[in-house]
Amino acid sequence: MIKSALFVLLQVFCLTASFGQNPPWKANGAAISVRPDLDVQWLSTNAFPREVWFYEIQPNAFSSDIISNVIEECSFTEKDKIKDDASGTTFRNAEGSRTLSISFSSGEINYETPRTHYGPTNLAIDVPQTNQLPALATNLLQKLHIRSSDISTYAGQSSIRYLEPALTMFYAGDNTITNIPYRSIYFRRFVDGMPIIGRSSVIDVGEHGKVEKIAITWPVLKRIKPWATVTQSDLVNYLRKGDAIRGPVPSDVGDIDWPSIKRLTIKMAIPSYQSDGKHLFPFLRLDAIVDTGSGSVPVGMDCPIIDEASTK
Amino acid sequence: MKPYNSNLHLILGGDTVTWTSPKKWYNFARYMNYGRHDFYSPYTIRNAYYQGNTDAFMDAPLPSGTTITLAVAGDSACLDDSLQTNTPPSGSWQYDSLLIFSN
């Protein structure tokens, strides 16, 4: 009993110590300089949760139901299994062209098929239209046991999107022939209504509605410790103290000389999580407008949502 | 007007506004020369361009509603050119685009 309590205490200590020193959001962009006089306008009106959690990322063994559903969806059978151990299971077809990897250790499901080489006389046939994707998505997410609450904001807004990411135009004489090789179902995992930033989960659907790609990261998450969120006044202070990073700018803008900017307007603040592979850390993602004095530049920013100094 | 002549292999560009990132050029060069993983498996020029940008912007804070679509235009025979091998242009032209970021 005492050993267990000590282990938990040690775990919390290690987590909080590493968090305060190097939160992962700081690697997402360029540090901003200290500007005690910075004019910050806070226009974001969305309410924050009062507390956010540190999570530990744990393996996901996935249920036998999920595994059999995915195997069937990807047209594999038991004879295609080439690896099966405690870390996961892998299937590959006889030609070696299609692979399904289910990693228990990282909680990932990845299915890859070779992209077909299309041409003006060999176009993709019967790729589902965008308006057909919602029904397919509902079916596929059910098979993966992903609930709508897992991919929705705390306001209930779904993160699922239906996109046409790839397009090819062939020029044959004066004719232009367009080919859509596949369409995609994108969704993002939400925890306590907060998005996990990073690569979205995606399912590509190609000819005749066949699934051509699955890329899902869905580890088990264990709550470790709650932390109170800071006030709007604290957030403005973070921005003035340079305790934030800013993201890229549009290529036609050039760069931002932060020490000389005139005003920073925060349009939206989104409580979010980011993974370092072992833990989920809470932070705040900002939609901002920078008044450079010669124009307005849209920019994304990340900053603390808790008093990270107190976690050191 | 198409910027095409019989010698052109590929033109890499954007279908939307693109965003600054030192990582995207680092990734692009690395993936073309070596590959994406810890073993030697160089990408084609087109795939290095797409994947290098995808990885560069994966965690980047970009304003909500941002979409980045890249485009690679060129001779149909050259779409899979790599730094290591390339194919002479065949005379047919195509335009390929891929969404690499959307939030």
Q: Which strand order do you get reading across the main beta sheet of chain B?
A: 1-2-3
Which regions of chain B contain 5 or more consecutive residues with pLDDT less than 50?
A: none
Number of extended strands of chain B: 3
Straight-line N-to-C gap of chain A: 27 Å
Broad shape of chain A: globular
Structural Rg of chain B: 14 Å
Share of helix of chain B, binned: 10-25%
Number of helices, where a helix is a run of at least 4 consecutive DSSP H or I residues of chain B: 2
Helix content of chain A: 10-25%
Order of helices and strands of chain B: EHHEE
Largest interface: A-B, 42 and 27 residues
Low-confidence stretches of chain A: 5-10
Mean pLDDT, all residues of chain B: 92
Classification by helices and strands of chain B: alpha+beta
Key traits:
heterodimer, A: alpha+beta, eight-stranded mixed beta sheet, eight-stranded antiparallel beta sheet, 4 helices, 16% helix, B: 103 residues, alpha+beta, three-stranded antiparallel beta sheet, 2 helices, flat
How is the secondary structure organized here?
The complex is a heterodimer of chains A (312) and B (103).
Chain A: H1 2-21, E1 30-31, E2 40-42, E3 51-58, H2 64-73, E4 81-85, E5 88-92, E6 99-103, E7 108-112, H3 133-143, E8 161-163, E9 166-172, E10 175-179, E11 183-187, E12 190-191, E13 194-195, E14 201-205, E15 211-217, E16 220-228, H4 232-241, E17 245-246, E18 263-275, E19 279-291, E20 296-303
Parallel strand pairs in A: 2-18
Antiparallel strand pairs in A: 1-17, 3-16, 3-19, 4-5, 5-6, 6-7, 7-15, 8-11, 9-10, 11-14, 12-13, 14-15, 17-20, 18-19, 19-20
Chain B: E1 10-14, H1 22-33, H2 45-57, E2 67-75, E3 93-102
Antiparallel strand pairs in B: 1-2, 2-3
Helix pairs in contact in B: 1-2
